[in-house]
Design brief:
DMP, 6 helices, transmembrane helix, 46% helix, membrane, mainly alpha
């Protein structure tokens, strides 16, 4: 069984972009906020001393939570596009898209209109929803619970067993009702294909 996403269709020679699939399985081939949960999961056991925290472990875990939360939130505002065979990445602002990798240096005609990529309500819905999903994921970790909440008791175990399911359903609903056209950093179907 191949777990890698299928390769993107090659653009036609006229320069037209490949069409995006509307199937749910390809809707978000690389969830932009998957980087913080993966790194958090990798680091949490050592940062929390496997759930038996000292004060220094609590500071480290709090810092890890803050950094991963910030990355998760801000990644909802990133966007990517292909122009003249080169892949560009940027951050949405109130005026348009701020491109990280030198799009302004191209000059000349045929520039892509980046003012259409302004921040909108949908961006903030996605950012806050992604942040909440990450925080629920993070606080459902037994190491984090042991570090911050000690014993916790039966109520905490019941809450952390059921809350991720409820938040996941709510997030899926919000992502369906408020779809985004942003193509964050890391989407495999945005890489220019050699001709």
């Amino acid at each position: 069984m191949n777990l890698l996403p299928p390769s993107a269709p090659k653009p036609d020679p006229a320069g037209a972009q490949p069409t995006r699939s509307t199937r749910p399985s390809r809707a978000q081939p690389t969830w932009p906020t998957s980087y913080p949960p993966a790194r958090f999961q990798a680091l949490t056991s050592s940062f929390t001393n496997n759930g038996t925290c000292h004060v220094s472990n609590q500071y480290l875990t709090t810092a890890l939570l803050a950094v991963c939360s910030l990355i998760c939130f801000l990644s909802s505002f990133t966007d990517s596009f292909v122009h003249d065979g080169k892949l560009y990445h940027g951050m949405a602002t109130c005026k348009g898209l701020y491109v990280f990798n030198g799009f302004d240096e191209l000059g000349g005609g045929g520039k892509k209109d980046l003012s259409k990529c302004k921040l909108g309500l949908v961006d903030f819905v996605h950012a806050f929803t992604s942040l909440i999903v990450f925080l629920v994921f993070a606080f459902s970790s037994s190491n984090v619970q042991g570090c911050f909440f000690g014993g916790g008791g039966e109520d905490l175990r019941t809450l952390t067993a059921n809350l991720p399911l409820g938040v996941g359903v709510l997030a899926s609903f919000l992502f369906t009702v408020f779809p985004t056209s942003r193509r964050g950093i890391g989407y495999s179907d945005m890489v220019p294909q050699p001709t």
